[in-house]
Amino acid sequence: MSNLYWLSEAQMARLQPFFPKSHGKPRVDDLRVLSGIIFINRNGLRWCDAPKEYGPVKTLYNRWKRWSDNGVFARIMVGLASESAEHKTIMIDATYLKAHRTASSLRAKKGGAAVRSGEPKVA
């Protein structure tokens, strides 16, 4: 079994309204390219390390860059979030949640170890 990631037809159908219209020459397969972009981002790879099954690296990068600059990915996220809110289903993926390095120094300024351990601060 392959470790490659592929969007399903149902997922692509949900995303289709957010894609920009093709002007003139038809675009390379959106399913292949978008699946490749997701694979690269999910695995933290460099563009040059993309598996050849997703097509030319330059195509993946160019589509990602153009759609990022035009706000396509932002519209997709907002659109999917609003659909989720309509259905009252909100899911948060905290696997990429990171605390900023200054969070601990702010706590230290407000009381140091006593605050961190939950003990009352003695004056």
Automatic annotation (TrEMBL):
Domain of life of the native organism: Bacteria
Recorded coiled-coil stretches: none
Every Insertion element IS402-like domain range: 7-77
InterPro entries with a match to the protein in the record: IS402-like_dom, Transposase_6_like
PANTHER family: BLL5188 PROTEIN, TIS1421-TRANSPOSASE PROTEIN A
Name of the molecule in the record: Transposase, IS5 family
